[in-house]
What does this fold into?
Amino acid sequence: MPVVTVGPATVHVDAEGFLTQYDEWNEPLARQLAARIGIELTDEHWKAISFLRADYPAHGETATLRRVSTLAGIPIKQLFVLFPGKPAKKMAYIAGLPKPRGCV
Amino acid sequence: MKRLVILGAGTAGTMVANKLRRRLPMDEWQLTVVDRDDIHLYQPGLLFIPFGTYRPDEVRKPRRRFLRDGIRLELGEIDRIDPVRQTVALDGGRVIGYDYLVVATGTSPRPDQTPGMLGPEWRKSIFDFYSYEGSVALAGALRDFRGGRLVVHIVDQPIKCPVAPLEFTFLAESYFRQRGMRDQVELVYATPLSGAFTKPIASAQLGGMLDERKITVEPDFLVERIDSERKVLVSYDERELGFDLLVTVPLNMGADFIARSGLGDELNYVPVDKQTFRSKEHPAIFAIGDANDIPTSKAGSVAHFSTEIFVDNFCDLVEGRPMTRAFDGHANCFVESGDGKALLIDFNYDTEPLPGEFPIAKLGPLSLLRENARNHWGKLAFRWIYWHLLLPGRRLPLPARMSMAGKHQPDKEN
Ligand SMILES: Cc1cc2nc3c(=O)[nH]c(=O)nc-3n(C[C@H](O)[C@H](O)[C@H](O)COP(=O)(O)OP(=O)(O)OC[C@H]3O[C@@H](n4cnc5c(N)ncnc54)[C@H](O)[C@@H]3O)c2cc1C
It folds into this structure.
């Protein structure tokens, strides 16, 4: 697993840059990761990111858009506004979770 | 008497009932299966009806015929499970108590979940082939199609038989070519995924096959609504995709009673342990087949392999022994590719579909991730196997565990 530095932190990532260790994540790191993909985190972004962080250990998988939308109450449309282009991937990247599996 | 209740007499429910009826003593166990009707649908056949390969009456048979003596079949719409009282309520007030419950109510297409899908164009220019009625209606629409843009579309993952929309696309391409009208038809494959399939090696192979056939892929397309007046699909990121004929796979969801009973996730699937199918919340409840949330394909083959693991574990459990078998996510799917050929893919939780031979290294006779006619005959033979061997719960010479024998790991680039 490659190791990269993001701001002051040194973290483990996969080939596409997704964090591989749940515990290496923290909020300042999330801000840095977001900035790398051109996103400045607002309260609304944080609502989604916090949900993903809390859901992952219980669920064992990165939440899908539909799961975030249903359980965190953020419409899918809004997720596309907050994380333009590929919201599921971008949310996972910022939340320091594995890339969503896309289902088999 | 101990009571085992199985909800759903589809692929998984029927197999579990038949296998357990042989394994559990008749004088100690009462087995009840519940389904809404007495028509068992061979769902893989729905792919072929639009092209006239199967007649509609070849895919439906009475459920009762496939259930062994000593299994009670209750017909009725399931309304709710009460996991505390351990009862199941059916519409109309019937209540059935259980000691153990197996949820096998599958997943179904839900066109009502996409705004505009059930509008005036439903079954006029918008069709699905995941339901019996849709598949039969689509046969007429394909026959009458005079050309234009045909969009094959998936609302969202997961869907059962995730390769079926690809197969439909390949078969449609071949169908129009054979009718001498391929150049009048523009074929588009619109998917919420970033490519043809989820796993990289299979995705590259299948994507290449779409390319060769001049089928355009519209990737990362997550539909928000359908404007049926203008005949366009509108995505959440505001792309528009026009169609003359739309063949869509609506959102797939588990049964609504699962949500009403407080047992489901956001798509009404029952969260279970992925190796034993036991509910994470209620130890007397198991969910197998498409109804659970395990991270592998929703497919008849998975239902079959799961059943073998489940039945052995269940017999251990009720005799007070620990459950020792663990499911590895094994799935095995034929992929029809048109012109009388098909591919085969075989994979599990950890291993993606790889090229090679199946089930025996070098000999095959089937080949993995490569088109040939033998695979196609394998797929057609499967209908007979399904009715005569699989549903009755006979053992097939296919191991529940995936095997690496015959598989080739292509050299990893970069
Ligand atoms: C077009 C198509 C092609 C496919 N091709 C393949 C293939 O080639 N290979 C493969 O392996 N798989 C294939 N599949 C998938 C396969 O059919 C399913 O994965 C399999 O049937 C799942 O079995 P199950 O028992 O979980 O669900 P089902 O077989 O769907 O059974 C669920 C049962 O529950 C009943 N039920 C649901 N809700 C209620 C309720 N509220 N009250 C009463 N009864 C209820 C239903 O009536 C149904 O009988 C295909 C599916 C489709 C749609």
Observations:
- The interface with chain A takes residues 156-158, 162, 193-194, 198-199, 220, 222, 224, 236-237, 265-267, 271, 295-297, 331, 347 of chain B (CB under 8 Å).
